[in-house]
Design brief:
Radius of gyration: 20 Å
Strand content: 5-15%
Largest sheet: 2 strands, antiparallel
Distance between the termini: 62 Å
Order of helices and strands: HHHEEH
Protein name: Transposase
Number of domains: 2
InterPro entries: RNaseH-like_sf (IPR012337), Trp_repressor/repl_initiator (IPR010921)
Number of strands: 2
Strand order of the largest sheet: 1-2
GO molecular function, one term: sequence-specific DNA binding
Oligomer: single chain
Helix content: 40-55%
């Protein structure tokens, strides 16, 4: 029985980042890296699910940030934006009433 090939974590990270960029089809990327397309999808999913771990400190996860943008849909320009760690209704109403020019 043959042993499964063990890929180095740096190789997996590079493959996952390339899959995430989406510059080429995952099947093409997988054949270039000499892995099965399912493996490339798994690496991409693992990167997306574990990306928040990069920002952990002392066992605590970084707070989730909500970006609230006020947009002009006709011109598709962002008129204002605000960041909040909690997306409470009061924050959203205040952001709509007094948009900042950040």
């Amino acid at each position: 029985m043959s042993k499964r090939k063990q890929h180095h974590p740096a190789f997996k990270a590079k493959g996952a980042l390339e899959a995430l960029k989406g510059e080429e089809m995952v099947g093409d990327l997988a054949s270039r890296l000499a892995v099965h397309p399912t493996m490339a999808h798994q690496w991409k999913r693992a990167l997306l699910e574990g990306a928040s771990g990069v920002f952990e400190r002392g066992g605590r996860k970084a707070p989730f940030l909500n970006l609230f943008a006020t947009m002009d849909w006709h011109t598709r320009k962002v008129l204002a934006w605000r960041i909040s760690t909690t997306l409470e209704a009061e924050f959203c109403v205040d952001a709509l009433k007094t948009p900042s020019t950040s």
